[in-house]
Design brief:
It is a single chain. The mean pLDDT is about 95. The chain is of the alpha/beta class and about 400 residues long. The strands form three sheets. The protein has a six-stranded parallel beta sheet, sandwiched between helices. Strands 7-8-9 form a three-stranded antiparallel beta sheet, with helices on one face. The protein has 17 helices and eleven strands.
């Protein structure tokens, strides 16, 4: 039986994007078969290109978020560069932008303007705080939005709030933009009309704050910061092992506690001890509970600790660092690693987590150099080589 094509084959996306939120969204579309034309500044391109040089000279953020795209470098402040983008949009199915608040509207590239001119177009505005309200014009970067959304307040230790180690606000906004595009394309298939899609980083991350938010709204207090421990379950934490590792375990109910006490702690009487027999008691005596578990696991190496916990039916995990993630045996066994091309040669990358059995494998195209596709894309919209050369000479294209 023939493989199904990638679901977004035939869809063209034009993106005036930068940093993480919009590029992460459009990379998902590219992985699923869409053609993504990335419009970048002529003077350095997407500023995420300059964040670091960790990926063999390329920026790690850029490599992560921009494979499989065509890079076109244009000066949108010049009417000729803006005219090229409008020609590209006229032939596109989707337009995505995350420029500073108000910048797209000044260029006529906001979703409302574009959808009025192109009824079948799905146009996405990604912003920090949304188009209205007192924060509409406030500058929004990931860590700032993490603070405004309360994520930092529930992350860290009792003494010290900390930001998430990944750009959670950017990722949340990017994923809602991605799913919003898919929903709008489904609606277009039924009605023939596209339409605007609006996503703000604050609102996206506020949705991800659902558990602590509802805990505070309806319970009166927000969950306490507890480091790696769980705020309302014990034992649920990471414990040092004899070989310098750390193993996290989670006891979800009192039956599991009794198994842990008998088979791992080798203290079966703790299963019925009123100080530990219920989760409420273990939370009330968290320090004593953790000391008992820590003493037992501290005498084992990580492999043996995991083996005993799994034999007892206790959920557990190793506390891995990023290098250990790159060598994770589960990712290797499921053959999740591929290589993508880039200006510095092949780079390892993970398959996207959406798996479509029976279909073609995600595209995972090359990471583009700045302006790598400018000439080809401009010729495809009818520009002559002389016209393109004039734009390059005048610094309107690169």
């Amino acid at each position: 039986m023939d493989q199904l094509p990638l679901p977004l084959e035939g869809i063209t996306v034009v993106a005036v994007e930068q940093a993480v939120a919009a590029p992460f969204a459009t990379r998902q579309l590219a992985d699923l078969g869409a053609r993504v034309i990335k419009v970048e500044r002529v003077d350095g391109g997407d500023f995420a290109r300059g964040y670091d040089t960790a990926a063999r000279g390329l920026a790690s953020h850029f490599v992560w978020c921009n494979r499989g795209k065509e890079s076109v470098a244009l000066d949108l402040k010049d009417p000729r560069g803006l005219a090229v983008v409008r020609r590209l949009v006229a032939g596109a199915d989707v337009f995505v932008q995350n420029l500073a608040q108000g910048a797209a509207a000044r260029l006529g590239l906001d979703a409302a303007t574009l959808c009025a001119a192109h009824p079948r177009l799905v146009a996405v505005d990604i912003s920090g705080y949304g188009a209205g309200g007192p924060y509409a014009d406030k500058r929004a970067y990931d860590m700032l939005v993490q603070c405004e959304a309360g994520l930092v307040s529930v992350t860290g230790t009792p003494e010290q709030p900390v930001k998430a180690g990944i750009p959670a606000a950017d990722i949340a906004a990017g994923m809602y933009a991605f799913s919003g595009v898919l929903a709008a394309l489904v609606r277009r298939g039924a009605t023939g009309r596209g339409g605007p899609v609006e996503v703000s980083m604050l609102e996206a991350l506020a949705e991800w704050m659902g558990h602590p938010l509802h805990h505070a709204l309806h319970g009166g207090t927000a969950p306490e910061r507890t480091g790696l421990a769980h705020a309302v379950i014990a034992p649920y934490d990471a414990y040092p092992t004899a070989d310098g590792g750390r193993v996290l375990l989670s006891v979800q109910n009192d039956r599991e506690w009794r198994r842990l006490a008998e088979q791992v702690l080798e203290r079966p009487e703790l299963g019925e001890d009123p100080a530990f027999a219920t989760n409420a008691a273990r939370v009330a005596h968290r320090a004593r509970t953790d000391a008992l578990v820590g003493q037992a696991l501290g005498g084992l190496d990580a492999d043996e600790a995991v083996r005993r916990l799994e034999a007892a039916g206790i959920a557990c995990a190793r506390l891995r660092d990023v290098h250990e993630l790159a060598g994770h045996p589960q990712l290797a066994a499921r053959e999740r690693w591929r290589e993508v091309g880039s200006p510095v040669g092949p780079l390892r990358a993970l398959l996207p987590p959406i798996t479509l059995p029976g279909g073609e494998e995600p595209g995972m195209g090359d990471v583009p150099a700045l302006g790598e596709h400018t000439g080809a894309v401009l010729r495809a919209v009818g520009m002559t080589d002389d016209e393109i050369a004039a734009l390059r000479r005048d610094g309107v294209a690169a």
